[in-house]
Amino acid sequence: MNIALVFGGCSSEHEISCMSAKTIFEALDPAKYQVTLIFITKEGQWKKVDQVRDYTPEECKDFPTAVVIPSHEADNCLILAEPVVRTHIDVAIPVLHGLGGEDGTIQGLFELAGIPYVGCGVLASAVAMDKITAKKVVHPLGIRQAQYVDVYRHELAAMDQVISRVEEKLSYPVFVKPSNAGSSVGVTRVDRREQLADALQLAAQHDSRILVEETIIGHEVECAVLGNLDVGATRVGEILAADSFYTFDAKYNNPESQTVIADYLPEETIQEIRKDAVRIFKALDGSGLARVDFFVEEKTGAVVFNEINTFPGFTSISMYPTLWIHEGYTIESLVDRLISLAVERKQA
After folding, report:
1. Mean pLDDT on 37-44
2. Is the CA virtual torsion 154, 160, 164, 166 positive or negative?
3. Do residues 140 and 264 both lie within one domain?
4. At residue 35, what are phi and psi to the nearest 5 degrees?
5. Position with higher pLDDT, 257 vs 279
6. CA 48, 53, 59 angle in degrees (round to 5)?
7. Quick one: average pLDDT of 17-26?
8. Which of 196, 206, 233, 242 has its CA at a distance of 20 to 30 angstroms from the CA of residue 61?
9. Domain stop point among 161, 195, 214
């Protein structure tokens, strides 16, 4: 099979994409797959490259430009320009986190081009990427979520009114997050009123919509799901963060952070999380893969939905592959399964 492995991207998670893509590339058996590597620069240029790594703009000048042609011809392909070379692609793997990767935009491009791709479709990707919208879609399921206030960037001109609206509904500490961002980028824990304005302004640098949430005291746990119509869910993993919360730095740069299997939880809690993860995935019309994040409240043991990631990290320390390895998969067999699910969805 001819695979297009797309990585990099314009989002704040560019470097993580490169790390995830390296793991997936090394799992692609060369006896089964011919791989075309497409690197997207931080500026949005598409380049056909020969290694999975980050590239500087200067290095990219030496590589041919890659273009996806919207077409539903039998020979769907990437057109590699300068000079023009047609390359047939059976499946694309968009190993892109955050904006431009998990938000439905690149999924829409592959839909227009008729190229099967790994992961969720346009709708599920767009809804899951936007934390506020995802909360509204999940609400009718009756699954508990953190209470929240949504704020628009333009409302920050009247900051005192925004702060009053937050304080009317929520008590400190609160978490302030961009509605569209991942890997805890732009997220701040706010313990007192004096910190709230700065936190809102930081989040506004990353998105025009901002989510202010109550703090849930408890264990942060995650569940991995896999499938299209027939969806499976793993046991539950827990994050042991080397920080006051799971910041970007704690996730990727601090060796003290750990991901472990949370088998200490009561079995009924584990099963509730697995069931809720699948229900949320299906409510968003998910396909392929996702990681669904929850809290288990410390005092009550209640399960609280946090967020869903439609192309979770695939680095050597990432929770998604770790959970499926615990279920008996290897990285190689997991990547094989994701590719087969992409073909299955296209055929359906």
Report:
1. 95
2. positive
3. yes
4. -110, 130
5. 279
6. 60
7. 97
8. 206
9. 214
